[in-house]
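Protein entry
_____________
===
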Amino acid sequence: MATRNYKPRSASTRHMSVIRYRDYLTTGKPLKSLTKGKKRYAGRNSYGRITTRHQGGGHKQKNRIIDFLFDKKNIPARVEHIEYDPMRSGFIARVVYKDGERRYILAPKSLQVGAEVLTSETAPLAPGNRLPLKNIPVGTFVYNIEIHRDGGAKMGRSAGNYAEVIAHDGGYAQLKLPSTEVRKVVSEAWASVGEVSNDAHHLVIVGKAGRSRHMGIRPTVRGTAMNPVDHPHGGGEGRQGRGHRRARSAWGKPTGKGQKSRTPKKYSNSFIVSRRRVGKKRKSGA
């Protein structure tokens, strides 16, 4: 099993689970030269105003410097360790290149210590190897995907995620993303072969409020429990309905299941071949 459950010594630990890290990780200490301190903003901007809700507190974290640019091409690298990174859901791999330089990369599933990874236009289709999308055949799973050539990996970076190459047409590769959206990406952009490690991340049950606070997540209050001045769903005597046909956010924008919330004139609309499915029908059609 990828996760471990606690004995039900209390109501909060009855269903709580954690990842079996010992089955995957090979060291507990990061490389000091590839780490740096992290300033906590707790969802505030430079004026101290909350711009992202439900953030704050949490355990102190040390930032690992991850290579998402992959500018060392045609130089093989050997995997030294698979490590934990508190800043992301997937595991990271410490690799050492032939010239002696060490870097952290996002580890794909099934990557083992001692394996060799390569960033090259002629690299074999093995997990962790990186190639231009034009050289990756249809049906291959990829992650760490660039949007523009040499722009650094932007898509497919969280635990267990991957995109599938489904077509090549007119200088673009068509990728089916985890959201079920089909998007065009220039064929000159690079991507890594495989899928992100720690695919059991979504099976973890946090179990108790204190653990959520340790993760830096602050409580979420229902809109119906607020006053009308604070939320469109607020107010009323006792438990009342929201009073609107569609659910709304605190700022009056549509939200909730089955509602489209994408900006109508977003810059990337022209690259979308098929919009993502939303709501209850998404799982049955995936």
Remarks:
- Helices lie at 209-214, 281-285.
- The mean pLDDT is 90.
- The radius of gyration is 22 Å.
- The first strand starts at residue 3 and ends at 5.
